[in-house]
């Protein structure tokens, strides 16, 4: 249950900065703010869902790369499963439990709600916007994930049916393997936070944590490795799409630098 602690720490840091500063204030009423944010969220959802209709050549190449990469990883699904089963240990359990929790929607949405409420309470548009972006990315990526899971109907590893069993439209959990939901959530959260914090050390830590989430799904035999790759791609694509459209101001002026005693962290105002 360490992932909730990570979320609480992130929320505490963001709100402590908001309490110390008095920038990004807005004279709009609460009703106007909520109405504007709902409108933005719906607009973002429509833009992302219909994006393939307007893809340019580069975007189609990236899409083809993701599809091709997922298909290529099918050939490693059995090997990755065997290796995961062979390398079970108490230490690995502890690490991958953190990743599993980080990929749960409840914690990502709780962090999004906390940031959004904190941004309104402290009149910080940047923090409120980050909360909105987190919530948007989790919901939009989640809907896409569920739609693809149901459409593919891929069998999970523990069914014993192998990595090439696709049943078409399904609603039963044992046949909703591709893509991984935990990976989708983890990478959507990490991509938004990395974009908003705007620091390479923070980005490395956030994406690494999301990577642990993806590996944890293979380790626990809940997904094939190709499932986690596609989930990571969807979460990242949606998270970056949502955050790149918003305000360009990072949520925090955060600087993290190596020092003789470890890492030196400071906030820049």
- The residue fraction in helices comes out at 55-70%
Order of helices and strands: HHHHHHHHHHEE
Number of domains: 1
Mean pLDDT: 86
Strand-residue fraction? under 5%
Low-pLDDT runs of 5+ residues are 15-24, 247-260, 262-269
Helical/strand content category: mainly alpha
How many strands appear in the DSSP assignment?
2
Based on the model shown, name its key terms.
269 residues, mainly alpha, 10 helices, 2 strands, disordered C terminus
3D architecture notes:
- The protein has 269 residues and is mainly alpha-helical.
- It has one domain (2-18, 56-267).
- It has ten helices and two strands.
- Strands 1-2 form a two-stranded antiparallel ribbon.
- Strand 1 and strand 2 (262-267) form a beta hairpin.
- Helix 2 runs parallel beside helix 7 (125-152), helix 6 runs antiparallel to helix 7 (125-152) and helix 7 runs antiparallel to helix 10.
- Residues 15-24, 247-260 and 262-269 have low confidence and may be disordered.
